[in-house]
Structures are given as structure tokens and as C-alpha cells.
Amino acid sequence: MRANLELIEQIRADSINDIESLTEMCQHMTLVTESIQQNYQALLVQNQLLTGKLLSIIDECTCREGKRCGRCLEILKTLGGENLEPKPDAVQKYQTLLTKLRKLG
């Protein structure tokens, strides 16, 4: 009987340690997620600033719509996404990652 009680007590202690470890990991993941969100937000702000600057360069140029200079055409192509390399399917990657994370939980 004592051996069973000691075993039950050890299982309880191990369970508490596991829960504490899991709590620490969740807190760490929360911090990582918050950091990623802050970095992404800063990236979006910088992207908007850059886009605005490029558009102001076009607005200040002496060329006209329909007869744009080479520089303005390149800027417009870049902003329109025509010059960029093909991007991997971000939605598919996100769904795959979510599926893997759900299987872990």
C-alpha cells in the first residue's frame, strides 16, 4: 500500500513539473509571437513609407501618365508586382504549418 501511495505521489509531482514546464513553454511562445507581431507591424509601416516615397517620386517626375519615363515605369512595375520573382504559395504554407501544430496539440 505504501509503495502505491509513494508511486501516486511521484506521479503527481511529475505531473506538476510537466505542467510548470508546459506553462513556461507557452509563456515563451507568447513572447515570441508578440515579438513577431511587432516586427511585422514595423515592416508594414516601413513598406507603406517606401511605397509612399516611390509614388511621390513618380508624382514629382516631369513625365506624364501614358508617356512615362523608364524610371517611373520600373517603379510602377515593381509596385504592381510585375518585376518580382514568383512567391511560394503563402496560404498553403500557412495551412500546412497550422495542420502540423494542431497535430502536436
Can you put this structure into words, describing what you see?
The protein is mostly helical and 105 residues long. 81% of the residues lie in helices and 0% in strands. It is built from 3 helices and no strands. Helix 1 packs antiparallel against helix 2. The longest helix has 59 residues. It starts with a helix and ends with a helix. The mean pLDDT is 88.
Secondary-structure blueprint:
Blueprint: H1 2-60, H2 70-80, H3 90-104
Helix pairs in contact: 1-2
Structural class: mainly alpha
Strand and helix order: HHH
Global morphology:
rod-shaped
Strand proportion: under 5%
Q: Compute the average pLDDT.
A: 88
Number of strands: 0
Give the fraction of residues assigned to helices: over 70%
Task: State the end-to-end CA separation.
Answer: 36 Å
Count of helix runs: 3
Q: How is the biggest beta sheet arranged?
A: none
Could you list the spans in which at least 5 consecutive residues all have pLDDT below 50? none
What Rg do the Cα atoms give? 27 Å
Features:
3 helices; mainly alpha; rod-shaped; 81% helix; 105 residues
Describe the structure concisely for a colleague.
The chain is mainly alpha-helical.
